[in-house]
Design brief:
Blueprint lengths: L1 E5 L13 E5 L4 E3 L3 E2 L12 H18 L7 E8 L2 H6 L1 H11 L4 E6 L10 E8 L1
Parallel strand pairs: 5-6
Antiparallel strand pairs: 1-2, 3-7, 4-7, 5-7
Helix pairs in contact: 1-3
Length: 130
């Protein structure tokens, strides 16, 4: 499998994402449900945005590993948040996690009124290929 990052501009580089990711010769695609800050019993984790982002990525990596993938294989992340200002205040968590994995996905960020459970502030949905 070969991944090519397509960035016609430079501004998105500091935000850690790509305008597009082209994948050639992939044999499998994994579509992950949105991962929120939930514990192993399915209870929401009541925490600040930074901690919820960490929990979302922990849960995402658990799903990816169970399917034989890693964060490096992720080509698209969709973020759903109840507060874009709070999300960007904690965005260092996202950059750190993606940088450590060498992951530069295409991404979309959407502010929504609410998530599935009260107190949840962020949900991360992923597509991975290998």
């Amino acid at each position: 499998m070969q991944k090519s990052i397509i960035n016609p501009w430079q501004w998105q580089n500091k935000l850690g994402y790509a305008q597009a990711v082209e994948v050639a010769h992939a044999t499998h695609t994994l579509y992950c449900a949105g991962q929120a800050a939930m514990d192993a019993e399915g209870n929401p984790v009541r925490a600040d945005m930074s901690s919820q982002i960490t929990s979302c990525f922990d849960n995402l990596e658990t799903v990816l590993q169970q399917a034989g993938y890693s964060l490096t294989d992720v080509i698209r992340l969709n973020y759903y948040t109840t507060s874009i200002p709070d999300f960007f205040a904690a965005y260092g968590q996202v950059i750190s996690r993606l940088s450590a994995a060498g992951c530069t996905p295409s991404s979309t960020l959407v502010e929504i009124k609410a998530l599935a459970f009260p107190g949840l502030m962020i949900e991360i949905e992923a597509t991975a290929v290998n």
